[in-house]
Write a structure and sequence with these properties.
This is Metallo-beta-lactamase domain-containing protein. The chain is of the alpha+beta class and about 325 residues long. It contains 9 helices and 18 strands. The strands form 4 sheets. An 8-stranded mixed β-sheet has the order 1-4-5-6-7-8-9-10. Strands 11-12-13-14-15-18 form a 6-stranded mixed β-sheet, covered by helices on one side. A two-stranded antiparallel sheet has the order 2-3. Helix 7 crosses helix 8.
Length: about 325
């Protein structure tokens, strides 16, 4: 009972404290093709004088335009990269100097050859490079620059800081910090408007669960130290329920803490069930039937939660 009250109070605090002024993205280019509803297949939004977000279907990257050139992030795929390349030429005549990879998953980082052909240097964490050596993809451009802990890319006064906090969602995901805007980006997680939203990939494939909470604690520390107020979402998300899809381009940096709490709540809830003598096989159904976290996770989905509970149970028993 006390634990449930604590979770509820934290959720209310995060909601209230997240209501700070945020930049209002302005659409400057969009597809003529509709994805669904009022959402276009792709769009480019300007967030600040030098910061832009590019959404293609449900995926999003961002790019920076500085005095010395352009910094791009995850190319997404060949078609998305081709469209972005065409639109970039309408926005700036600055050269594309760098492409920064957020992690190693092909669905985010394929298609960069069109930028490599223009002389761009590709930057990634060292473990991403190792992943592509072991499991190459012809559509993934190998990095020219690799790093282990931190790396900063600059194009004049505009820069992108890259931070590695250990394995999380794949073994080489990094947190990205845009300067001087003080805006963060964490691929595949922490999507506005709410980090307590039901996650899409409940199976947590290629996820190092043991370091998820520590990863987000480090992200929170960085956000506090660097006075970050805003985060860019790498995916579209939803408001209040999964049927109410929203762009989710920007949101409060409190989403980072909410995402950490999402994982923390699920791990702790499964551990409590095991400690109470519930067998591993029974844990998912037991927690579904008891309604655990039903009022805490936004867009709670029983089928996804059953998968998630099973995955976390396996982790807590095997360590994998």
């Amino acid at each position: 009972m006390l634990n449930g009250l604590r979770i509820g109070l934290i959720s209310i605090f995060l909601l209230v404290s997240g209501c700070t002024n945020q930049p209002v993205p302005k659409t400057i280019a969009e597809s003529e093709i509709t994805l669904f509803g009022n959402m276009k297949l792709w769009e480019i939004e300007q967030i600040s004088p030098h910061l832009y977000a590019y959404r293609y279907t449900f995926y999003r990257n961002f790019f920076l335009i500085g005095e010395e050139g352009v910094i791009l992030t995850d190319p997404l795929n060949q078609e998305a990269a081709s469209i972005l390349n065409q639109e970039l030429s309408k926005i700036t005549n600055k050269p594309i100097k760098y492409v920064a990879y957020s992690h190693s998953h092909w669905d985010h980082i394929s298609g960069g050859q069109v930028f490599k052909d223009q002389g761009a240097q590709f930057v990634a964490h060292k473990k991403c490079q190792e992943n592509w050596i072991d499991n190459p993809n012809p559509n993934v451009v190998k990095p020219d620059i690799v790093f282990e802990e931190e790396y900063t890319i600059s194009v004049g006064e505009i820069s992108l800081e890259m931070y590695y906090w250990g394995p999380s969602h794949d073994n080489c995901r990094v947190g990205l910090l845009i300067q001087p805007d003080r805006i963060m980006f964490i691929a595949d997680d922490a999507n506005p408007p709410n980090g307590l939203n039901m996650i899409y990939g409940a199976g947590l494939a290629d996820t190092y669960i043991y370091n998820l909470v520590p990863f987000f604690l480090e992200a929170e520390k960085l956000a506090k130290h660097k006075r970050v107020k805003t985060i860019i979402g790498s995916h579209m998300s939803f408001q209040d329920n999964p049927m109410n899809l929203v762009s989710g381009t920007v949101g409060s940096s409190n989403v980072i803490k909410q995402q950490r709490l999402f994982y923390e709540y699920v791990i702790d809830t499964v551990q409590e069930a095991l400690d109470d003598g519930i067998t591993a096989k029974e844990v998912p159904d037991y927690l579904i039937q008891s309604g655990a976290l039903k009022n805490k996770i936004v867009g709670y989905d029983e089928s996804k939660m059953r998968v998630l509970y099973r995955r976390i149970t396996n982790f807590l028993i095997t360590g994998e």
